[in-house]
Amino acid sequence: MVRNLVVIGGTSHPQLTQTICSVLGVPPAEVLLSKFAVGETRVEVQESVRGKDVYIIQSGGGKVNDHLLELLITISACKTASARRVTAVLPLFPYSRQSDIPYNKAGAPLVKSSVPARPNNGYTFESTPPTPSPGKPEGLGITNGMDNLQKSLAKAQIDDVSNGSPVKRRPGNGLPRSDTTDSLKSAATSAADDSASNISASSKINSFQPRPGYKQWVAQAGTLVADLLTCAGADHIITMDLHDPQYQGYFDIPVDNLYGRPLLKSYIQRNIPSHREAVIVSPDAGGAKRATAIADSMGMEFALIHKERRPTKITDRQNATMMLVGDVRDRIAILIDDLADTSNTITRAAKLLKKEGASQVYALVTHGILSGDAIERINASSLDKVVVTNSVDQVDHLRRCPKLEVLEVGHVFAEAIRRVHHGESISVLFQYD
Ligand SMILES: O=P(O)(O)OC[C@H]1O[C@H](OP(=O)(O)OP(=O)(O)O)[C@H](O)[C@@H]1O
Fold it and tell me: Which ranges are annotated Low complexity under compositional bias (predicted)?
C-alpha cells in the first residue's frame, strides 16, 4: 500500500490502469468521465486529491483527440482541487510524431508541393487492403466502393501529371470513372496508398492549390501539445519510447521516457529459435538507432531498409522506393520499430525481406496503434508474427489478429510511478543491456 498516491484512469486504457493499480496496491480513484450531448468532455473527480501525488493514466491511439482533451481537463481538475503534484502517464505520447516537420532542404517549416517520382523498378509496395482516406467512413475501404474510388483517384492523378500540374488533385465530385486498364489499376493502387495516409489533414493538403511561388505552412502540433499539458497543470510526464526522444526538450517540466526495449529483447531471447543467427532489421533510417541498440546489446547482425528518395511531405512517405542494406537470406528477420499505425511500414518491409530470402519475418513494435485497416493489412501480409506492447489497448486487436502477441507494460509503469512517488531514481528502468 502506497500512501498519498492517487491513480486516475482515463477512458483510453482501463485495463492498463487496473494493472498499474494492482501492482501498486491502490484502488483507482473515483472519477466521472462522460460527455455532454454536444460532445464536450465532462470530468468530475469524486474524491479528495488535496495534497496528494496524482498520476493520470491516459494513452494515445484510438480516439486520440478526445483522450487528450480528457487528460487536459482531468489534470486541470486535480490542480484546482489542490493536488500536490500531477503526473501525466502517457504510455503512447499523442502527437509525438508531429514534433518535427517534413524534411525540407529549404528550411522549416515550409513544404514544397510537387509530384514525387513513382517507383519504377518494377517492384510494388501496394498494401492489402488499402486504408480509407481520412474523412471517409472506415468501412468504405475494402470492397467495391474503394475499387471505384481508387480508379477515380488514379485517373485524376494521371490527368494532373500529363497536364504538367505540380499538384496532385482529387476528382472534384468523387464519382468513379470507367477506366479499367492494367496500368490504371496499378496507378490506382498507388493512389490508394497515397490516400492511406494516417495524417488527418492529408485530403485537404492534397486538394490545396497553391499559387505559383506559394508554399504550405505546416503546424507544429507537438509543440502545442507540450504547452497544453504544462498549461493545464502537469508537473511531470512519464511516457515510453517517444518517437523522437528530442521531443523531451519541448517541455520545461521533467519527462521520463521509459524504454520498451527490455521487453522486446526478452521476447527475442525467449521466443525466437536460434535468435543469434537472426538479423535485426530497421524498416527505415529513422529507426536505425533504436534497432542497432538491440542488435548490439544482443550480439546480433543488423540490416537496414533504406528509402531511396526522402519525401518532402509526410503524405508522400509511402511512395518511397525501398531497398535492403544487409543480408537476410535463409535467416529470420526481426523488424524493430517504435510504432505501427497503418502498418504500411512493417508490411512493406516484410514483403521486401521475404523477397530477399528471409525465412521468417517478425515485427517487434512498442506501440501497436493499428488504426483503420492495419489489422487486415497485417493478416494479409508476409509477416509471420507481430509483437506489440499494451501501451495502447490491444483487446480488440488481439481478437482480430491471429498473428498478434502482446507484452505487458503495466508493471514497468507501476514501478516508475512507485519510484517517482518515493523520490527514487528510475534510471534502472532505462537500462536494457
Ligand atoms: O504503420 P505506419 O503508418 O507505416 O507508421 C509507422 C512508421 O511511422 C513512424 O515513422 P515516420 O513515418 O514518422 O518516419 P520517421 O521514422 O522518419 O520519423 C514509425 O517510426 C514507423 O516507422
Answer: 181-198
| Per-residue model confidence as pLDDT tens digits over 219-229 | 778 889 999 99
Please give the Cα distance from 369 to 65 (Å, whole number).
14
How close is the Cα of 342 to the center of ligand 1, in Å? 9
Q: What is the pLDDT of residue 271?
A: 96
Task: Report pLDDT for 156.
Answer: 43
The closest-lying atom of ligand 1 relative to the alpha carbon of residue 369 is 1
CB 158 within 8 A of CB 187: yes
The residue ranking higher by pLDDT, 431 or 253, is 253
C-alpha 204/C-alpha 221 separation (Å) is: 17
| Residue bearing the CA closest to ligand 1, atom 9 | 339
Q: Tens of pLDDT along 272-316?
A: 989 999 999 999 988 999 999 999 999 999 999 987 655 555 555
Residue nearest to atom 16 of ligand 1 (CA): 286
The SS3 of residue 326 is: coil
Secondary element (H or E) of residue 138: none
CB under 8 Å to 221, separation ≥6 — which residues? 95, 98
